[in-house]
Specification:
The chain is mainly α and 259 residues long. It has a single domain, classed as Glycosyltransferase (Alpha/alpha barrel). The chain is built from twelve helices and no strands. The two termini are 14 Å apart.
Length: 259
């Protein structure tokens, strides 16, 4: 069983002020101060998106979705900055219903964000559609993306992209009422959970909880079991991207496991 008290202690000990404010909101629904929200929103471009570490001042779809997840943990998706980011995401949808990073980033973007790469395109489409589905007023954009995601599914329920694409796409389809397609994907995900890293398991659990899956959903139950197996003695979980992101993974695990 996941030790939530230890996880909370890890965030308090290792996190910064914004991390602790995220923890407080997740635990009690307490809204942070204006100064804290402004600190969480810093770095947004005039266009509405946030840049990635490699993109200079060019806003990135991947980085913007990551920042929206942090703002969601602060109860800040209705604020102007988040709404501006959602509008920017919607404006970046391509005519075929997909998303890709700006072509100017082709030489610097990592594999999961390479413009023109089919796997990256499907991942970014699922990621952008996920946050637009959480926001309000973007149903047309999400429906077009959902059509792309459904069309991409293989007969066995797998998808031609990264593992993360699976839980983001399944969550989008679940929110859009495409329960059959979503269930086909979650069957595959459930089979893969026992071999997932703590990072992926926490992200899967947090995403599916936010998408409205039931607490006793079989994939979520498997994810909580995996998180219990991978929790460290200090209460936290390791990030696949290095120690700097351990607190973020731990916050995702808390979202996945809290009731």
């Amino acid at each position: 069983m996941v030790d939530l008290d230890a996880a909370i202690g890890f965030v308090v000990a290792k996190g910064d002020q914004v991390d602790r404010a995220r923890l407080s909101y997740l635990r009690t629904g307490a809204l942070p101060s204006e100064d804290m929200l402004a600190a969480a929103e810093i770095g947004q471009t005039l266009a509405g998106g946030w840049p990635a570490f490699y993109s200079g001042r060019v806003p990135s779809i991947d980085a913007t979705c990551f920042r929206l997840a942090q703002l969601d943990d602060l109860g800040a998706l209705q604020r102007h900055k988040a709404r501006s980011a959602l509008h920017w995401l919607a404006s970046r949808q391509r005519t075929d219903g997909t998303w890709q990073e700006d072509e100017s980033l082709a030489h610097d973007a990592p594999p999961w964000a390479q413009p023109g790469d089919p796997e990256a395109t499907l991942y970014l489409t699922a990621y952008a559609a996920f946050w637009l589905s959480i926001g309000e007023g973007y149903d047309e954009h999400v429906e077009r993306a959902a059509d792309v995601l459904k069309a991409s599914l293989n007969p066995d329920g797998t998808w031609p992209s990264f593992l993360v694409t699976g839980w983001l796409a399944a969550s989008v389809l679940h929110r859009m009422g495409a329960f059959y397609e979503s269930a086909r994907m979650t069957v595959v995900l459930t089979e893969r959970v026992p071999g997932m890293t703590a990072n992926d398991t926490a992200w899967l659990g947090a995403s599916m909880r936010r998408a409205g899956y039931a607490d006793d959903d079989w994939t979520l139950s498997a994810a909580r079991k995996r998180l219990a197996e991978t929790q460290r003695s200090d209460g936290g979980w390791p990030s696949d991207d290095g120690e700097l992101f351990d607190v973020n993974v731990t916050l995702q695990a808390i979202r996945a496991c809290r009731f």
